[in-house]
Each structure stands twice: as C-alpha cells, then as structure tokens.
Amino acid sequence: MTFFQTLKSDTKEMIEIKKEAGKFCSVTLDEYTSTRSRRYMNLNLHYDSDPVNLGMVRIKVSLPAERVANLVEERLQEFGLKMGDIVAATTDGASVMKSFGRIICCVHQLCFAHGYHLAVTDFLYARQKSL
Questions:
Q1: Which site among 20, 75, 100, 114 is 20 to 30 Å from 93 CA-CA?
Q2: Are 52 and 45 in contact (CB under 8 A)?
Q3: What is the DSSP string of 6-42?
C-alpha cells in the first residue's frame, strides 16, 4: 500500500505539472471481466505520447452511461482533474459507451480495433460452427 500511495502521489504531481504547462489530455477507457466474473473499468490519460494509467475501478452493479460518467469523474477527481480538463475520450463500441459519449462534454471516438476484433471473431466462430 505504501508503494501504491507513493506512485499515486507521483502521478498527481506529474499531472499537475502538465496541467500548469497548459497540456491537454484525452482519456481511454475499457471494461474488463476477470475469469472470476468480476468486472472492472480501466482508465488511461494521454498527454502527447505519455500515457498515464489511473488504474482499474471495480464495477459491482449495473453500468448505465450515467454511472460510467460518474465513475470516470470520480477517478479523475482523485488525481486532481475534472471532466472539463479532458478534450477527448476513446471507448469501445458497446451501446453503453456510445451513450456515455453523448453525455460527456468532450469529443468521443469509438475504438476501431474493438470493432475489427469483433468482426474477425464473429467470422472465425461462424466458420467453425458451419464445418
């Protein structure tokens, strides 16, 4: 826990320095389900080419778009940021993330890699079933 607190403090300082320098950041987020069926949401900040991982947030209940926005805002506040500091967000193409993109105050981009992966997976599994 001491290492975590030190790392979090260093990350907050780095974010504050970039914020004072007038740097803009974007955020990427993705949902993850563990092998034990526990759900998490990972959050990353991006300053130029410097990604900053803000960690995973445990999801214990259903996750409508408004809840996603609240979780993102809470995590940003832990690091001294607010949604107004974010200029863009990139998410997967899930319908909840599309709704999230409509309610946030910044540019929203769907991740094309997720779409390609799903298309290839659907094609491969469809071929296996027909054999």
A1: 75
A2: yes
A3: HHHHHHHHHHHHHHHTT--EEEEEEEEE-TTS-EEEE
Residue 90's CB is within 10 A of a number of other CB atoms, namely: 21
Is the distance from CB of 42 to CB of 68 less than 8 angstroms?
A: no
- Give residue limits of the domains in the chain: 2-130
C-alpha separations of 130 from 14, 44, 118 in Å: 53, 40, 18
CATH topology of domain 2-130: Nucleotidyltransferase; domain 5 (3.30.420)
Helix (H) / strand (E) element for 98: namely helix 95-103
Per-residue confidence in pLDDT tens, the chain, 131 aa: 899 899 999 999 999 999 999 888 999 998 888 999 999 999 999 988 778 999 899 998 888 989 999 999 999 999 999 888 899 998 887 788 888 888 988 888 888 887 787 788 888 877 555 55
